[in-house]
């Protein structure tokens, strides 16, 4: 394996880590995208105050999920929920902060999702935007690293073109973190870089960088998470020379990582999650690079009626059976997944999305409302 000069990471990745996300806007002209620096400054300052390392997301406009929703007409409500529990304001949903589809809408409305990865104008605009963010925080010790995107895929609300394949994503990562990452390193020699893909495999696919890869085995690695259906090759992305550590996610509420079995949802989700973490532990060892579970969630029954999938703007309809779990099951799940990760070769675990009752805008315990 070719070695490359990489920054010295913090003493360990097994320290408190949070995602730093930037609320996106769409100024004109679109080639002059500017980060909302004041808001991100507040996030960074709060993290530094509490000694939390931030995995600063460049997913401000590169989040894979950005379904279009009507612009609210009422005034801003920081809680984002009306008294009857319905979603009201922009910014409440995790997919409401810009994304790949926002770029496509503004530059080539009506095109496919994966145009983001291949169109030179869009790539140039993204690079210009990211450069502004990197310069601002290059010397800030609060940052753990830069994440190029969130759950990168060929499709989202917009469909994929017939030409999009796993190499499309890998080539984009190298386009951004190759010559561009070297540019980041000239501005920032203090932070790591990860792609931010969801961790899907393409076993048996042609590789651009992975000299060693997992061989297809439908008994051990069955189903769409491994056969390339998602058109992502997490092994090839991790093996690319500019990536310092790998990323993967775990959302059994939205993704069926392994084929259905005759088990309850909670039992299946716990078991499938452990096998998914184990697969990535093996990948980390095989590729000789750290892996981090950058997002995991298991929705409880109390929150199921408010749960909105990544590619939607409304909760599941009442006709969909509740797949939420009891709180004690969620606690057991997170403990089990984290134990499998940290006792293996996965070096970090982040929960998504942290929810706690009683916080005010100043971080003090107040009302019992979320």
UniProtKB/TrEMBL annotation:
State the taxonomy lineage.
Eukaryota, Fungi, Dikarya, Basidiomycota, Agaricomycotina
Family matches, as SUPFAM superfamilies: (Trans)glycosidases
Keyword annotations: Hydrolase
Q: Where are the transmembrane segments?
A: none
Name of this chain's protein: Glycoside hydrolase family 5 protein
GO annotation, cellular component aspect: extracellular region
> What terms describe the molecular function in GO for this protein?
mannan endo-1,4-beta-mannosidase activity
Q: Cite the residue spans of the region called Disordered.
A: 1-34
Q: Which InterPro entries match?
A: GH, MAN-like
What species was this sequence derived from?
Laccaria amethystina LaAM-08-1
Answer yes or no on keyword Chaperone. no
């Amino acid at each position: 394996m070719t070695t490359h000069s990489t920054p010295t990471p913090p003493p360990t990745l097994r320290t408190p880590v949070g995602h730093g996300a930037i609320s996106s806007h769409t100024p004109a002209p679109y080639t002059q995208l500017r980060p909302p620096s004041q808001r991100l400054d507040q996030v960074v300052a709060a993290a530094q105050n509490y000694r939390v390392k931030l995995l600063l997301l460049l997913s401000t406009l590169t989040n894979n999920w950005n379904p279009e929703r009507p612009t609210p007409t009422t005034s801003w409500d920081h809680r984002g929920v009306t008294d009857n529990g319905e979603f009201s304001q922009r910014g409440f949903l995790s997919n409401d902060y810009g994304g790949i589809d926002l770029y496509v809408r503004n530059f080539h409305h009506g095109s496919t999702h994966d145009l983001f990865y291949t169109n030179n104008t869009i790539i140039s605009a993204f690079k210009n935007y990211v450069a502004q963010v990197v310069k601002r925080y290059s010397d800030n010790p609060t940052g753990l690293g830069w994440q190029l995107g969130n759950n990168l895929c060929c499709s989202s609300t917009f469909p994929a073109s017939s030409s999009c394949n796993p190499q499309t994503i890998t080539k984009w990562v190298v386009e951004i973190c190759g010559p561009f990452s070297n540019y980041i390193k000239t501005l920032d020699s203090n932070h790591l870089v990860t792609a931010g893909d969801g961790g899907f495999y393409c076993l048996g696919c042609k590789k651009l960088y992975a000299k060693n890869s997992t061989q297809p085995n439908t008994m051990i690695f069955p189903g769409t998470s491994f056969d390339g259906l998602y058109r992502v090759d997490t092994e090839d992305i991790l093996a690319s020379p500019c990536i310092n550590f790998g990323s993967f996610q775990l959302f059994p509420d939205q993704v069926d990582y392994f084929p259905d079995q005759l088990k309850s949802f909670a039992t299946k989700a716990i078991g499938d999650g452990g096998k998914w973490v184990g697969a990535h532990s093996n990948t980390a060892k095989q590729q000789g690079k750290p892996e981090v579970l950058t997002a995991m969630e298991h929705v409880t029954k109390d929150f199921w009626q408010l749960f909105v999938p990544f590619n939607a703007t409304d909760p599941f309809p009442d006709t969909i059976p509740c797949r939420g779990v009891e709180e004690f099951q969620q606690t057991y799940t997170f403990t089990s997944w984290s134990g499998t990760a940290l006792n293996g070769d996965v070096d970090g675990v982040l929960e998504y999305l942290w929810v706690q009752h009683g916080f005010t805008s100043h971080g003090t315990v107040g009302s019992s409302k979320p």
